[in-house]
Amino acid sequence: MEILNALVDGIIVALEPLNLGLAIVGVMVGLFVGAMPGLGSVNGVAILLPFTFVIQDMTGSATSPMIFLAAIYYGAMYGGAISSITLGIPGASTAVATTFDGRPMAISGNADRALIIAALASFVGGTVSNILFTGFAPPLASVALSFGNPEIFALMLLAFATFVGLGGDDIPKTIFSICFGLVLASVGFDIVSGEPRLIFFDITGFSHGIRFLVLAIGVYGIGEMIWTINESRNKDTMSEVSFSFDRVIKGIKSFGEAWKGTAIGSALGFFVGILPAAGATPGSLMAYGVSKMTSKNPETFGKGAIDGVAAPEAANNSASTGAMLPMMTLGIPGSPTTAVLLAGMVIWGLQPGPLLFSDQPEFVWPLIGSFYISNVVALVINIAFIPLFLWMLRMPFTILAPLIFVLSLVGTFAAYQNMFDVWLMVIFGVGAFFLRVLDYPVAPAVLAIVLGPIAEPKLRQSLLLSDGDFSIFFTRPIAGPITVIAIILILLPLFKLIRDRFKKKRLA
């Protein structure tokens, strides 16, 4: 009851005209930042952090500026789905998994439905994570802290296992795709020795490694554009798009079909989000894999499955709130964006950690209250702007293709100010096209390049801890069960193959 009273008081403060206005503006800015390739929540929050000092001078409090930045964070999580669905270009790394099924839905004339599903799933994911955050912040923070290197590596292994175990008849191609992604993730300098590795042709541009956003924009922006051009054979094509109040109602009603993906994304996203160094991108990819694994029709994934949109969108919004938890309760940022928010809190004279809730309740509870408000505002604005988003799809592809190409180039350069990354993005786009022609899945490679830089140091640090003994992944109480489940999923295709051959012999 005490927590509920504190939350109500916090929501009342967050609903004050200035705070509400900052939340609305922050969400709209976040939607734009999230939808623009190359920007994302990190850039948006970092760019606008200096502006918050003006707000603090006006209000004399750190609450209002933090509400503004948190609203940008929320809006960006929603916004990433816009360009992923309408253009096939992930606005941010967190929205890559949304592209897998969101873009096929748009191509088939269901872009409005995909956008509505994404908005509602994001809202549910955000709401679930807000409730968990409100009620269980301290104990959940301690659980996250109990995840050491072996546990996090086991979790990453489980993510890989979901893709291997669900590769259908193309297991070898899936494994090849994962291995190829891991090779790309290894480019740069060795994290332990500092020695360069896989610096192809001694090109200095590879020294910083393969940046994920470069890969994502190339694969899903340039690659999708080339594929569409090849399929249309230079015909003047445009997506069949329609929008009406009846279609909105039907889209909302169809959300009931996505309850499983939404539930998986909400729970898994929050859990992964509270883990330090994880964040929303691995959470959304893992949610997509688990949703596919538990689906009755896994073959529909990648072709416009509703759960394929709902799961990652619920996960990335849930993870964004989850990442705030270790930042506020432990002083450990759960994502790059929360690292910027943490820096802001320190500048404003706040001390994140276990005592923040007891020492600064006038800051904590209005901020938590603003999470609920920003979530509602983002849902309303997102659905209200759907006609504008669909307008892009009504353009002939002869106009849309150059637009996608320019946005991809500008987005990549804006993110890193490096022409080498721009050329690399184009090469990845062409490579993705040929992989698609050869029927190789691209999603496992994307997963590998995201999780590889997280999994490798955790693996090596775990083995250093155990003097090279791999049993550490089986004997620890949390890591053990996760590792066993991952191994079972990896071996699942082999079991299926043996079973099918046994059946054929019996029939023969």
Detailed description of the structure:
The structure is a single chain. With 508 residues, this protein is an all-alpha fold. It has one domain. It is 75% helix and 1% strand. The protein has 23 helices and 2 strands. The chain has a two-stranded antiparallel sheet with strand order 1-2. The chain is globular, with a radius of gyration of 22 Å. It starts with a helix and ends with a helix. The mean pLDDT is 78.
Map the helices and strands:
Layout: H1 2-14, H2 17-35, H3 40-48, H4 51-59, H5 63-86, H6 96-107, H7 111-145, H8 149-165, H9 171-185, E1 188-189, E2 196-197, H10 212-232, H11 245-253, H12 259-273, H13 280-294, H14 306-329, H15 336-347, H16 356-359, H17 361-384, H18 386-393, H19 397-416, H20 419-437, H21 443-465, H22 472-475, H23 479-507
Antiparallel strand pairs: 1-2
Helix pairs in contact: 1-17, 2-3, 2-5, 2-17, 3-5, 3-15, 4-5, 5-6, 5-7, 5-14, 5-15, 5-17, 6-7, 6-14, 7-11, 7-12, 7-14, 7-17, 7-18, 8-9, 8-13, 8-21, 8-23, 9-21, 10-19, 10-20, 12-13, 12-14, 13-14, 19-20
